Backbone:
């Protein structure tokens, strides 16, 4: 596989942040090509000239060859316990697949950029936050060229699936947005803001490891 200077690999491309990211990567002049790993062909992505779809039913079947030759690897892959159906299924998606993806990227020279969550902590009593934190702790032990982790708060945007808490937060935020103009740590952010901060980090981050909190996501120029 040809090793281009700006070639992106994306998992979780069909989610709220993932779709926004793919659109912005298509428009970003710094990126020459984008490969999205999807379980089913996505008609919307066929309209993007830079985007190639790699259809794979089980992401745990990804191998070294599949991830070789990319300058940047983005993961927007994540679920909820309700959508996954159980804590075990949630863990399999949010931890095991992301960990496998990162394992394959070791010593490949790729910059891994991952969407986690505000509140991620391996010691948290909240299962969701604990799994997110456990994943982050594991990623820090790997030999990755660069690692960026993003901690968005509640996300604003239209999802294919209903998330009750996020839907309620969106309604409240839309009612109050004209009076809440200044950034603050827990302020909801749009998927487009998260995607934009990821691309800016991909192009500018000098550190080997950096966490981008929700405040930085809001204020990324």
Residues:
């Amino acid at each position: 596989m040809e090793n281009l200077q700006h070639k992106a690999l994306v998992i979780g491309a069909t989610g709220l942040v993932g779709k926004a990211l793919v659109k912005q990567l298509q428009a970003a002049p710094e990126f020459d090509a984008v490969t999205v790993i999807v379980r089913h062909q996505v008609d919307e992505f066929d309209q993007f000239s830079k985007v190639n779809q790699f259809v794979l039913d089980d992401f745990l079947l990804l191998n070294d060859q599949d991830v070789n030759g990319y300058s940047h690897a983005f993961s927007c892959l994540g679920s909820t316990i309700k959508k996954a159906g159980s804590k075990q299924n949630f863990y399999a998606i949010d931890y095991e697949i992301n960990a496998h993806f990162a394992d394959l990227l070791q010593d490949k020279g790729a910059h891994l950029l991952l969407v986690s969550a505000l509140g991620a902590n391996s010691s948290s009593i909240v299962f969701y936050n604990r799994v997110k934190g456990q994943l982050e702790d594991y990623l820090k032990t790997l030999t990755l060229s660069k690692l960026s982790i993003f901690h968005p708060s509640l996300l604003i945007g239209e999802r294919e699936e209903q998330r009750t808490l996020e839907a309620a937060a969106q309604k409240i935020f839309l009612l109050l947005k004209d009076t809440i103009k200044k950034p603050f740590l827990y302020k909801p952010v749009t998927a487009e803001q998260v995607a934009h901060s990821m691309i800016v980090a991909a192009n500018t981050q000098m550190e080997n490891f950096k966490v981008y909190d929700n405040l930085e996501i809001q204020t990324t120029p």
Summary: The longest strand covers residues 33-38. The domain at 7-219 is CATH 3.40.50.720 (Rossmann fold). The mean pLDDT is 89. The beta strands are 7-11, 33-38, 51-55, 72-75, 111-115, 146-150, 155-156, 189-190, 209-212.
